[in-house]
Design goal:
Radius of gyration: 21 Å
Number of helices: 13
Mean pLDDT: 98
Largest sheet: 7 strands, mixed
CATH superfamily of the largest domain: Type I PLP-dependent aspartate aminotransferase-like (Major domain)
CATH topology of the largest domain: Aspartate Aminotransferase, domain 2
Shape: globular
Number of domains: 2
Bound molecules: pyridoxal-5'-phosphate
Number of strands: 14
Distance between the termini: 38 Å
CATH class of the largest domain: Alpha Beta
Low-confidence stretches: none
Strand content: 15-25%
């Protein structure tokens, strides 16, 4: 049966694609070896670098975020290299599994999936690595599976305090364009990004922003690579072109999305995400439910994972919300399957969309007979009113 009105896509990415971006993509594809294309390419590279806060090259791949994870590793490392990964949740684990499949030796520091990465634990591992076998520290800035953020400056300081030369690689797939980030200021060597979350595009583009140190490492990195290789890509990108057929229409969309972020102003975009995350947590607290992230200060501004009371199924609840209100909420991943649901509040999103989202959750809780106190929506609305935009 047809559902009237727009679907509410409140998973933590892909996010709702604004009409302006859709319209920008709805244009004839042009010759990717033309001067017109080079203008577009230069525009998106410059715009993307501003969002990432990097002065070095930004590489754009026609792939999902996982491609950019792989690219970061194969361009900088050699078979048998150790990489230190902090297990913030599902995505950190996935990244370390990719490293393992590529012939690297990941050291996974266990985490409880309820906080960001522990800088102290990273420092201890690096300090114990007298042989300097660890070549990279890999951290997920915003762990989408748990709604916990890692303080990248803390990780940077921890690495520097040990004097360890490992590269710092940061996954910003669900934070870029939504939360403050600066690759240069935080001295991140490879930043990994994706199109489908804060950048408000459909899935299909991913990014590596590369520091001087990572570029030097790439000169002697021996893992096999071709499609992902930075070398040819960066050389040709400088002229406004790609070594293979680029995703032209996605780049139209990216140019538009970058314009939109600039029109609003990045500080305002970040503040908007902060307000919405805060209001969401107020609602969860008022319902008497628990947020997965339990470390004050590590709360994500883009996604809130909510724990289901014991004996209740998060997936059954999500199904009710989808069937009754045409709203998709994020599922629990790996060990959190069926135990949490995730509310995405990122991208092209405003107060009334949040109000609708939280109303759908509150009605769903009632319909699914999940023990809770009503009134979370009202609490969130009050928070939005009191904390003016
Ligand atoms: N890293 C994070 C933090 C993510 O949230 C995701 C996907 O949601 C990925 C990596 C994997 O990206 P993709 O699914 O686009 O390959």
């Amino acid at each position: 049966m047809r559902s009237a009105g727009r679907h509410f896509l409140q998973i933590p990415g892909p996010t709702n694609v604004p009409d302006r971006v859709l319209r920008a993509m709805d244009r004839p594809t042009i010759d990717h070896r033309s001067a017109e294309f080079a203008d577009l390419a230069h525009r998106v590279f410059e715009g993307l670098k501003e969002v990432v806060g990097c002065s070095g090259p930004a590489v754009i791949y026609p792939s999902s975020g996982s491609g950019a994870w792989e690219a970061a590793l194969v361009n900088t490392l050699s078979p048998g290299d150790e990489v230190l990964v902090y297990e913030t949740g599902h995505f950190a684990k996935q990244w370390s599994e990719i490293a393992s499949r590529l012939g690297l030796l990941p050291i996974l520091i266990p985490g409880d999936w309820r906080s960001g990465a522990d800088a102290q634990a990273i420092a201890e591992n690096l300090a114990a690595d007298g042989e300097r076998s660890i070549k990279a520290v890999c951290v997920v800035h915003n762990e989408t599976s748990t709604g916990c953020v890692t303080s990248v400056p803390d990780i940077r300081r921890a690495i520097d305090a040990t004097g360890h030369p490992a590269l710092l690689m940061v996954d910003t797939i669900s934070s870029l364009g939504s939360m403050p980030y600066s690759a240069d200021e935080w001295q991140v060597d490879v930043t990994i990004g994706g199109s489908q979350k804060g950048l408000m595009l459909p899935p299909g583009l991913s990014f590596n922003a590369v520091s001087e140190k990572a570029l030097s490492a790439s000169k002697h990195a021996a893992l096999p690579k071709s499609y992902w290789s930075w070398e040819e890509m960066i050389a040709i990108n400088a002229k406004g072109f790609f070594p293979y057929t680029p995703a032209t229409n996605m780049l139209y969309g990216l140019a538009e999305a970058l314009d939109m972020l600039n029109e609003e102003g990045l500080p305002n975009v970040f503040a908007r995400h902060g307000r919405h995350a805060g209001a969401t947590r107020h609602a969860v607290e008022a319902w008497g439910l628990e947020v997965q992230c339990n470390n004050l200060g590590d709360f994500s501004n883009t996604v809130t994972a909510v724990r289901m009371p014991e004996g209740h199924s998060a997936d059954a609840f999500r199904k009710i919300v989808l069937d009754r209100f045409d709203m998709s909420l994020g599922n629990g991943l790996s060990k959190l399957a069926d135990k949490v649901f995730r509310i995405g509040h990122l991208g092209d999103f405003n107060d009334l969309m949040l109000a609708g989202t939280l109303a759908g959750v509150e009605m769903g809780l009632a319909l699914a007979n999940v023990p809770h106190r009503p009134g979370g929506v009202q609490t969130a609305l009050t928070a939005l009113v009191n904390e003016s935009a």
